[in-house]
Amino acid sequence: MPAHTPTRICRVLLGLAVLWGMIGCSGRESWAGNTKATRATLREVEGLWVLVETVRPEVAQAGLTAQKLQTDVEWRLRHAGMRVLTDEERRGTPRSPFLYVNMIVYLRPHAFASFHIHVGFNQLASLTTESAPPMVTTWSCGSTGKVRSARLAALRNPVRAHVDAFVNAYLSVHPRPRGRATPSSTSPGVTVSARSRSASRPLGFTLERLTVR
After folding, report:
1. How far apart are CA 10 and CA 109, in angstroms?
2. Rg, the chain, Cα only
3. Of 115, 137, 114, residue with least CA distance to 51
């Protein structure tokens, strides 16, 4: 077997992992983005539940746990004046809204690990047919990049930045609560290099190349 074959296989697996993260590991396809049309779908949403996907054990052991991400996300939403629901409350709320956060981290044998982050707002949507309303993603953003394996915990910073983007989108169609400010997305330890936004957005994401040093 050629010496370069394992590396090639790893790259293929990483590509498949990123693609799987884009279409939603829980089976929910995400074709939304952060546009005027998708921001309009956030109107009349009075509260939302937060669902953070579990992370791999080796990632959690490095200090990046789902519980820490959950705390980060809920704090930023509450700080902006948004109501965070329990899952039970969400089920009794019109449109059953929730914010879905998924992070895929691929640990490589060298100094860097690759990652993909997806933050999407999900709610029940009406169809022109008489069928039951499906759960769909109506707003989303994401990023892909690399991070030093010893700095995995710093990936909380780009997650916060994506949640701030959602807060800004939400507040753009809701009156800003008095005395509330949008959380600052400026976080130490994150370097954004060669930032580029996909012009065509084939999968509906705003993709940014992030490097956490």
Report:
1. 10
2. 18
3. 137
Whether the model pTM is above 0.85: no
- Are the beta carbons of 100 and 30 closer than 8 angstroms? no
Question: Smallest Cα–Cα separation from 17: which of 156, 117, 133, 100?
Answer: 117
Residue 8, both tokens: 């090639």
**Would you say 36 and 86 are in contact if contact means Cβ atoms under 8 Å apart?**
no
> Strand runs (DSSP E) across 53-174, as ranges?
83-85, 98-107, 112-124, 135-148
Q: Partners of 51 in the beta sheet?
A: 100
Q: Comparing C-alpha atoms, which of 97, 77, 101 is closest to residue 25? A: 101
Look-up of token digits 């789902």: 66
C-beta of residue 117 within 8 angstroms of C-beta of residue 103:
yes
Kind plus residue range of the DSSP H or E element containing 34: none
- Rounded to whole angstroms, the Cα distance separating 169 from 183 reads 13
Tokens of residue 166, six digits = 């959602």
Torsion sign over Cα 73, 210, 17, 114: negative
Per-residue pLDDT of the chain (213 residues; tens, 9 = 90+): 444 454 454 454 444 444 444 443 333 444 689 999 999 999 999 999 999 999 999 999 989 999 999 999 999 999 999 999 999 999 999 999 999 999 999 988 778 899 999 999 999 987 767 677 888 999 999 999 999 998 999 999 999 999 999 999 999 998 765 555 555 544 444 333 333 333 223 333 333 444 444
